[in-house]
Amino acid sequence: MTISNQHARPRLIIAGTGSGAGKTTVTLGLMKALARSGMSVQGFKCGPDYIDPTYHTAVTGRASRNLDAWMTSPEYVKEAFAKASAGHDISIIEGVMGLYDGKDPLSNTGSTAEIALVTQTPVILVVDVRSMARSAAAIVLGFQQLEPELNIAGVIVNRCGSAGHYSIVKKAIEQMCGIPVVGWLKREEDMSIPERHLGLVPAIERGELEPLFERAADALLEGTDLDAIIAIAKAAPDIEEELFMNHEDVSRQNPDPMSTGAHLKCSEDSTSGECDERRTSSSPVIAVARDAAFNFYYPDNLELLEAAGARLKYFSPLAGEDIPSEADGIYLGGGFPEEFAALIADNVSFLEGLREAFRSEMPLFAECGGYMVLAETLTNREGLTYNMAGIIPAQVQMQAKRAALGYREARAVEDSFLLKKGEVIRGHEFHYSTMTYQEEGDIPYAYETKGLRGMKQEGYARGNVVAGYTHVHLGSHPGAAGRWVQHCQSYRLRRSGQHI
Fold this sequence. Notes:
Layout: E1 11-16, H1 23-36, E2 41-46, H2 51-60, E3 65-67, H3 74-85, E4 90-98, H4 112-119, E5 123-128, H5 135-146, E6 152-160, H6 163-177, E7 181-186, H7 200-205, H8 210-223, H9 226-234, H10 250-253, H11 272-282, E8 285-289, E9 294-296, H12 299-307, E10 311-315, E11 329-332, E12 334-335, H13 341-346, H14 348-359, E13 364-367, H15 369-373, E14 375-379, E15 385-387, E16 392-398, E17 404-412, E18 424-431, E19 433-437, E20 447-451, E21 454-458, E22 460-462, E23 465-468, E24 471-472, H16 480-495
Helix pairs in contact: 1-2, 1-8, 5-6
């Protein structure tokens, strides 16, 4: 398929009537089927989830992106979608929970419906029709009427008992709702996506779920009109002209007077090549841990750091790699350190590198899994305890019960390289571990966070370390990325004996 209009963005949202309706199976099957046909597919996920985008990335071969208008803003979502969807044949956006489920039961805030409205994307509604016939039409009709401005352009019915069952619900929905039922999936229990256990992402990376992705595509193609789905995607309105703004404008990300750009300017008589070389050699380096233990990063965060002037250098603690010697800052993302605690503990040079970074006041940011590795010890579910970096005077204990889940507004308790005291950044918290500090009375918490259950203090901020369970989205605070990179630049100059 050739995109003749640069502002055309063929796109769909795959939404469910509720969690468990089958939207992930449909999304992955559709992505795989489209990729098989030779199309360039860009995946997106509504909301803050990391695991579904990992599935998308494995299926499409390109990094899936999160679209979250609560953590960022509707304007940010529009820009991010316009940028990431450019040049691809089709974009598939997977919804979150039910179509209208989000942060607020009285509005579309934080829901799939909000993303559909913001991006003007047609919706394919996935309906679980087990044990129903004409009632399926009532469900779809209700979803249509709740938000009349939403374009529910088609339906896929899941868990049909037979072709005859599909024919009944198809006729009922099309008669009452006036939209096409474009496909169906049989009731196959082994088609279910595995539960989100903690070893799932490493299994995806090893390719162990590839047969499941192939089977999902086969099942979808067996009962679905792929041409009709592509036609719905092509009918999406063009992206508005004003969305094609410079998403990487450093000035937008660096409102502070002392932005990194002030240190990286080239003279007027420099050639373009000389300027680029000087800028690259002068840019601060942020070392990013990325492997099966550290893999939960919003792509936007990494791109915003680069847009603010940083060079990112990736390394794998699990492969025995040290922190890169040229690092001027460190980013430890979330993931599954408890699954690989023995390997992390054995990489003594990595842990000592973290301690040295702390001692030298190098900016060190860690979230969730990375936060856990900064503690003194980590005890896994089997009761085995491993020594970690020991920067945070606390012990981490894994537990069977989930410890926290939900959106967070994180207010800085004190000034740091990320936020000034009182500034707020938004993010998400999801973990099964607990962090127990040795001294409960005098903990330098990083944030005061607000969630559904009220306010709490969490994380750790001392020296140039900022860490916590909250996965922050830098797009929610335009100055945060620039301030972080500027502190890395200051460290770089200080290390080389220069002065700002």
